[in-house]
Amino acid sequence: MPTSPGLHTHPSPWTATPPLPDGVGPLPKAFVSAWLTHLQFEWGEITRGYRRQPVANDAPLFEEGQPAHSVYVVESGRIRLLSHSAEGRRRHLMIVGPTGLVGDCGLLQSQNHVVSAEASTDAVVCAVPVAAMLAALTQAPALARQHQALCSMRFRIMLQHLALQGANSAKRRVCHHLLGLMASYGTPHPAGMLISIAFTKQEMSHLCGLSRVRVSQIFAALEKEGVIVAVGRQVAIPDTARLASLAQN
């Protein structure tokens, strides 16, 4: 069967349901990862001919409220999105990896960026003028469906982000994001479900609104309790039901 140009047909690890090893309970499908990476998207039709731009780790790409002249396709590394409260507090929303987009939020409703973006690692992005992006989404149904799928993913992340605010403990916030990583990127491993993508404790601290030291303390406690297991530089979950309980209670 022919496929639409510009859209991969492989399932994304973000939405796929991985097979489970014996003894591991079902994954909680309601949870998704705030790390949007390993996406099976293709934006070559719209990036062709536009400039690539390196962004150093922690450097800003654009600020909330600035005029939105470009939409950025992430080609390597990761970009984090954040917003600012009325009191000036930074709220980290999600982390977008290769073949994701940033700068398109509110593309049809606002001439200004509605969130801020900065590099979570050294990154390279391709800047596509807003007018070119809008024209491509109008003229290429496959690209429009791809963009709609990405918007749906981000909407689900934001719903979880809002539900997590308030009186949730630091440990629950960390477990919530570990559960999302496992549900989106878990692969079978002798130690349980292995989170197959790399992430840093600094990224976890940003998303949880905690210090890196506090996140390290929580990881150490979870490992002592047998909730997580270190596999090299990655993390495995021996008991998904236990992690789900900690993330939800």
Give a description of the structure.
This protein has 249 residues and is of the alpha+beta class. The protein folds into 2 domains: 35-164, Jelly Rolls, CATH 2.60.120.10; 170-248, Winged helix-like DNA-binding domain superfamily/Winged helix DNA-binding domain (Arc Repressor Mutant, subunit A), CATH 1.10.10. It has helices spanning 44-47, 130-139, 141-164, 170-185, 201-208, 212-224, 240-248; strands at 35-36, 52-55, 60-62, 70-76, 79-84, 90-96, 101-102, 116-119, 123-129, 186-189, 192-195, 229-231, 234-237. Strands 1-6-5-8-3 form a 5-stranded mixed β-sheet. It has a 4-stranded antiparallel β-sheet with strand order 2-9-4-7. Strand 5 and strand 6 (90-96) form a beta hairpin. Helix 2 packs across helix 3 (141-164), helix 4 (170-185) crosses helix 7 and helix 5 crosses helix 6 (212-224). The longest helix is centred in the middle third of the chain and has 24 residues, at 141-164. The radius of gyration is 18 Å and the shape is globular.
| Beta-strand share of residues | 15-25%
Number of domains: 2
CATH class category name of the largest domain: Mainly Beta
CATH superfamily caption of the largest domain: Jelly Rolls
Give a count of the beta strands, DSSP E runs of length 2 or more: 13
SSE series: EHEEEEEEEEHHHEEHHEEH
Strand order of the largest sheet: 1-6-5-8-3
Shape descriptor reads: globular
* CATH topology-level fold name of the largest domain: Jelly Rolls
Uncertain segments:
1-11, 14-25
Q: Kindly state the mean pLDDT as a whole number?
A: 86
Largest sheet: 5 strands, mixed
What is the tally of helical segments? Answer: 7
What is the name of the CATH architecture of the largest domain? Sandwich
What does the radius of gyration come to? 18 Å
* Distance between the first and last residues' Cα: 46 Å
- Which secondary-structure class do the elements indicate? alpha+beta
